[in-house]
Amino acid sequence: MRIDLLRHGETTLSHTLRGHTDDELTENGWLQMQSTIQRYVAADTDWDVIFSSPLQRCHSFAINLAEQLERPLQLNMHIKEMYFGDWEGISTQSIYENEPELLANFWQFPTKYHAPNGEPLEQFLQRVKVGFNEIHTQMKIHQWNRALVITHGGVIKLLTCLARQQNIDDLLTMPAELGTLYALNLTKVDNQIHFSEKTAI
């Protein structure tokens, strides 16, 4: 199965760690996503279904696009961004000024360090895997071969890390630009979900 991962565009709190904070897309953020999608539609990319995070920076665009393309839309609670706890909605600059060592440790070793009262990486990993297990199941039931998944930077970075079979501590070095699309293959072997990288159109 082919999944195309679209990261949401710029939001009103793009200068912060948003996590589960439900901020809105800016006008520019909407245009970032729309211009990306238009290029794929122009290239005759045909998605069978659209899956989306329930957070409005993904969901609001997904609703509009599903209507525009006349495709089914399914929300998946498990593909939300990592939860940053006490750092939610706070800029990295502000965190650096107050907790420089903890922030540096989190950037370099996310498997060992996480935001105060935030979601540990292992928990995030398991949650995202549950989400894509559900997506795989739905695609198999409906015989969908290609899906557009509108989600977050952390989710895309995590899946790219898994697809490249890199150390999970390399998570934050993976690409996930605002409003950009990334292509992966999704398979299930021995009841385990697997990702492999595919060159984008």
From TrEMBL:
It comes from Acinetobacter beijerinckii CIP 110307. One of its GO terms (cellular component) is cytoplasm. It comes from the Bacteria. InterPro entries: His_Pase_superF_clade-1 (IPR013078), His_PPase_superfam (IPR029033), PGM_Phosphatase (IPR050275). This is Alpha-ribazole phosphatase. One of its GO terms (molecular function) is phosphatase activity. The active site is at 8 (tele-phosphohistidine intermediate), 81 (proton donor/acceptor). PANTHER family: BROAD-SPECIFICITY PHOSPHATASE YOR283W-RELATED, HISTIDINE PHOSPHATASE FAMILY PROTEIN-RELATED. Substrate binds at residue 57.
